Every structure is written in C-alpha cells, then in structure tokens.
C-alpha cells in the first residue's frame, strides 16, 4: 500500500507550474497556499474547454451552446452544495470571493438590520476583509464594532464574547474558521452555541478552512458562510456565499441589473428567485466551471486525506523550524488546533529580508502583515514570515526551506 | 550565492543592525527624545509590507541642523533611511530638496534593486520630502514651492 505521503507526491504531475524552475534553475517550492493555490491541469482544461467549445451566456438563450454552459455552471452549484453539505442549492450564491461575500452581507443584510447602538462582534485575528466592511457599516449606522480578544496561545478569549452578548445589543458575530496568519482553528461549536442561545446571527469566513478540511455547514449551524475558489485549486475571481434561507429571504439585493430580476417596469422591479436575485449581470461562467473541476479534484482525494496530509506536514515543519536557533513560531503548538499555516519570525531579521533570501533558493514564502494588521498589533510585530501548505507540498519542500533559512542566518550573521 | 542575495552585502547588514541617526521606540518615550524637540515630523508607511518610518528634523536658518528617523523596516529600508539622514544632515533646505533616489541607491549599490523592493528603499526619501513640504507650507510664503515638493514626494514610486 502506498503511504499517504507518496500518493500525495504523485499528484504533483497534475500541476504544470510545479514542473518549472525559478531563480537560476532551482526547483520551485511553493509555500504561499494560504494566499492562493496552484491549479491542476483538470481545472485549467475545464476553463479552456468552456472557451473553446461552448462559450455562451447562461440562463436565457435557447440554443445548444447556452444549454451546455448553463448546465455546467449550475452543476458547480450542486457540487458545492454536496461538498459543504448544504441541502438547498438556492442558498448558494456565486460571488468574486470571500471579500465580496462579506461585503454583500454587510450591504444587503447589514444596511437594513443594523441600527444605531447595535453591536457587531469580530475577532482580533481576522483578515482585513472581515474587519473593514464592518467598520464601514458601523460607522454609517452609528453602531459599534467590538473584538473578541486573543490569548498568547493564539486562541480566542470567549469570555469577551459573553461580555458583549450580555449587553443584548449584538446583532452579528463574525469570525474566521481558521486564522490566515496563525492557523488557529476557531472553537466554532462554542461560539455558535453561545450566539444561538442569545438569538444572534453568525458569519463564518471559511476561506482558510474549506480548502483544507471537511466542513459541514449544516452541522456548524451558522447563518452566513463564505469561501474562495482560488485557495482550493480553483481560478481567481470566484467564491461562494451561503446564507441560511430564512435570512436570505429577508435580504434586499446587492447589485441591480440583469439576471437578478423577474419583471422590470419604469419605476419598479420584482426580483428573481433565489439565488439569482443575488447574481446580477453575466457571472464569471468560465471560472465557476473551473471551480467545479477543482471540487471534483478535491472530492476524489477526499478532504479527510487532505487534512491528514497537512497535519503531517505541519507537524514536520513545526519540528524542523523549532530546531532552527532564533525562530519564533506564533500561535499554538497543538497541531490538532492548527491548520497548515505557520507564521514565524527569525531573530531580528525583517520578514521581507527572509522572504527575499529564501526566494533566491526558489522558495516562495509570504512576508508582511498578511492583511491582518489588527493581529500584528496584538502580536506587537510589524510583520511575520508565513508558510502555508497544500496537497502538493512535500517534506522535501520543508527541508529546502530550513536549508535556505541557514542561508539567512549566514547573511545576517545570526 | 544567487544574484538575489547579493543585495545583502556588508554595508546593508551593518546599517540594518546599527542604523545611524535612529531612535528606538523606547528612546522616543524618554524626556530627552529627539522627536520631542523637532521643527517637523512626518510619518508614512508602506501598506504592502507594513514598513513604517518617522523622520524628524531640526531646522535653523533654512538648514537641516539635525535629523533622525525611527520606525520599523526591513534591512533595505533601514539602510536607506540611515544613508538618507547622513546625506541630509547639515544641508540647506534647497540642497535637501534636490536629493534624488539615485543618491541613496548608488550609495548602497542598490541601483539594480527589483521593483518590488524599491518601495522599501525609497520610503524614507518619500517621508523626508513630505516632511520638507509640511515645513515649507507652514513656514514659508511660497506655497507653490510646497505643492511642487508634495508632487515630487507622491511621484517617487
């Protein structure tokens, strides 16, 4: 029987980009998967196939091409429903990505539900996309934005949530399922339990979770749920917003235009059925189809296997990195509470310099604030270096990283 | 060593380790902090990487009599900021405004710096130019001059 590692290694051949070299013929070691993932031939081919063979607009025309395009587009919706365990396909809305999904909620739900004095609760380890839309909304409505704090282990302090819920003014609690910087897996069960008991809606930013583990939306019990295609082998510019139907039915449209209407008259319009009411204009058809191919690819591997592979890599990387003198890893050491994301600093070397020197060895790591400046302030650092894994990463990649860090130590005389 | 790491030569590493004309965050909290007694301070940051630089100047008789910087940045940013303050110190405001990006880059052998890192190198020059127009707008009658400097600062990179 093949070990899980070697069967994952054999996937690498599906990814044309992993066959290229960078920086004077060095093997590409791509460790920025929390930012975006590489695409397998199956996804690239699905997009190309649409443009080559059945490119047409969806939903209205009656000719053959349109029928094929509509079918492929809508099939992806069904694939997603199965993938995240949603019973009702009408609750799945295609958006550009997680950022647009959250902005859609802030606009279409928030503007009619948030009033002066209301509280929206987010967390200290959110991506800017789960902070800024709520700043805009609360400022416009004279409402308040509050933060669930984070302890030194990188875990949320749920007492903070209790404190805000006790005011009776909280209308929404929004949080990421996995932190894009620390990799912390949020204690979602507890948060949702508390919010449900208080009659408060919950939004989950699952951009770092859905690509990496089995996620069951029905079981989670949240009200809004968002993730992006490009972080899970799919193309850029396509993502998913799921909204519980009882909430979705009360929401006004986000964008007005074609496809979202039933009847348009000079001064009034009636809306199309769900989910089309929220998909104005010609959608990103090609990338929805490509996203469908990505879901097929991941389904074939099995999300439990993906998670197992990442646990193994993360464990290995934590061990190897911890052994390098001067490396400080942020967040919990408990692998079971961690996704495949590791943020670190290397002595007093700025993460930009770390990233540049390891790039010289063909290794792509991220440096900076990772769109989480509130978290950087909390950690009291300007920036971190971050590595994040996916299905095609190997222990060899991590060994290469560690070797290149020795080079950083040499250059900076650590 | 690959071409990429070549920029990390001795001088850059030294400056990043021991920046000149620099005050740490802790030093700035002290009573006798340079930054508590300047004629102008300006702050700017690089939204992409979080590099964040303050420059303070003492100006007397149209001359930069003293200048310091503080903040956080990568080795390139810290080295360029150090060199910039060394160049600017003691110069007339007229001469300071003539400082160009190549004056800094050539001093550190960074003429070939990649586009993604150029912002690290030039953040402090941007801050210096901004500090200068802030000062000029406040202290001189010639507001056109200040506007021109503002444009210069904005178009640096």
List the SSEs and their pairings:
The complex is a heterodimer of chains A (414) and B (157).
Chain A lengths: L3 H6 L11 E2 L3 E2 L1 E2 L10 H14 L9 H20 L8 E4 L2 H16 L5 E5 L8 H10 L2 E5 L9 H8 L4 E7 L11 H10 L3 E5 L11 H4 L3 E5 L10 E5 L1 H4 L12 E4 L4 E3 L13 H17 L1 H20 L4 E3 L11 E6 L4 H9 L3 E2 L1 E3 L4 H7 L4 E5 L6 H17 L3
Parallel strand pairs in A: 3-15, 5-6, 5-7, 7-8, 8-9
Antiparallel strand pairs in A: 1-2, 4-10, 9-10, 11-12, 13-14, 14-17, 16-17
Helix pairs in contact in A: 2-10, 3-10, 4-5, 6-7, 11-14, 12-14
Chain B lengths: L9 H8 L7 H5 L10 E6 L6 E9 L2 E10 L2 H14 L4 H5 L3 H7 L7 H25 L3 H12 L3
Antiparallel strand pairs in B: 1-2, 2-3
Helix pairs in contact in B: 1-3, 3-6, 6-7
Briefly summarize what is shown.
With 414 residues, chain A is of the alpha/beta class. Chain A has helices at 4-9, 41-54, 64-83, 98-113, 132-141, 158-165, 188-197, 217-220, 245-248, 285-301, 303-322, 351-359, 373-379, 395-411; strands spanning 21-22, 26-27, 29-30, 92-95, 119-123, 144-148, 170-176, 201-205, 224-228, 239-243, 261-264, 269-271, 327-329, 341-346, 363-364, 366-368, 384-388. Helix content of chain B is 48%, strand content 16%.
Main features:
heterodimer; A: 414 residues; alpha/beta; 14 helices; globular; B: 157 residues; alpha+beta; Sufe protein. Chain: A; three-stranded antiparallel sheet; 7 helices; 16% strand
Structure description:
The complex is a heterodimer of chains A (414) and B (157). In chain A, the strands form 5 sheets. Chain A has a 7-stranded mixed beta sheet, sandwiched between helices. In chain A, strands 13-14-17-16 form a 4-stranded antiparallel beta sheet, with helices on one face. In chain A, helix 2 (41-54) runs antiparallel to helix 10 (285-301) and helix 6 (158-165) runs parallel beside helix 7. Chain A has helices at 4-9, 41-54, 64-83, 98-113, 132-141, 158-165, 188-197, 217-220, 245-248, 285-301, 303-322, 351-359, 373-379, 395-411; strands at 21-22, 26-27, 29-30, 92-95, 119-123, 144-148, 170-176, 201-205, 224-228, 239-243, 261-264, 269-271, 327-329, 341-346, 363-364, 366-368, 384-388. Chain A folds into 2 domains: 4-30 and 303-411, Aspartate Aminotransferase, domain 1 (Alpha-Beta Complex), CATH 3.90.1150.10; 45-299, Type I PLP-dependent aspartate aminotransferase-like (Major domain) (Aspartate Aminotransferase, domain 2), CATH 3.40.640.10. With 414 residues, chain A is an alpha/beta fold. Chain B has 157 residues and is of the alpha+beta class. Chain B has a single domain (3-154), classed as Alpha-Beta Complex (Sufe protein. Chain: A). Chain B is 48% helix and 16% strand. Chain B contains 7 helices and 3 strands; from the N terminus they run ααβββααααα. The longest helix of chain B is centred in the last third of the chain and has 25 residues, at 115-139. The model of chain B has no long low-confidence stretch (mean pLDDT 90). The A-B interface holds A 23-24, 26, 349-353, 356-357, 359-361, 367-369, 373, 376, 382-383, 407, 411-413 and B 1-5, 7-8, 13, 16, 48-52, 72-78, 117, 120.
